[in-house]
Amino acid sequence: MGIPGSGLAKGLAVTLRTMTRKAHTAQYPDVQPELPPRTRGVIGLFEENCTVCMLCARECPDWCIYIDSHKETVPPAAPGGRERSRNVLDRFAIDFALCMYCGICIEVCPFDALFWSPEFEYAEEDIRDLTHERDKLREWMWTVPAPPALDPSAEEPKEIAAARKAADKIAAAEAAQAAQAAQAKDAAEGDGPTGSSGRDGAAS
């Protein structure tokens, strides 16, 4: 059997301890909170990277991503080439009334079309307004923080190395063509007066 009044004493002890501590109350919205860098606020869409692969919509556990698209034919890049078809995005929407902010859609996107933004002030009076269409999702991209700087001692990604190698190869080919053109021009300028004097001598 406990001592009478022990519960009250414990409660008063907790009250005294908390009274002496510094308050951590944030005066929101007058004072904005300092959010961690990886805060999951809202999802932004970088439409140019989207290929309508539908991975995000298929993997979403809440089925809150809606995508519509159509196919269009792309003419061949070179004469004699084959036409190809590509998907064109018509609609991309996320229903944040259903979203549970798991981030699976961002992780599975193979083309980096979805990003986390720390913005969280998008409450609505009408629940239907929580379905953000692609124009609204694109606006959130302006609030996406810049990625952290790469470790200088880290190995260069294979994609960047391949792109740099291809760019160097193209630059070398263009430089070789420019050098050949310059040599041909110099040769033409050098042969011009000689040929002219030869013709003049033959005429005389």
Automatic annotation (TrEMBL):
Main subcellular location of this protein, as a coarse class: membrane
Amino acids binding [4Fe-4S] cluster 1: 50, 53, 56, 109
Q: Which residues form a coiled coil?
A: none
- Please give the catalytic activity noted in the UniProt record: a quinone + NADH + 5 H(+)(in) = a quinol + NAD(+) + 4 H(+)(out)
| SUPFAM superfamilies found in the cross-reference section | 4Fe-4S ferredoxins
Sorted alphabetically, the Gene Ontology cellular component annotations on this record are: plasma membrane
Q: Where is the 4Fe-4S ferredoxin-type domain?
A: 41-70, 90-119
Protein known as:
NADH-quinone oxidoreductase subunit I
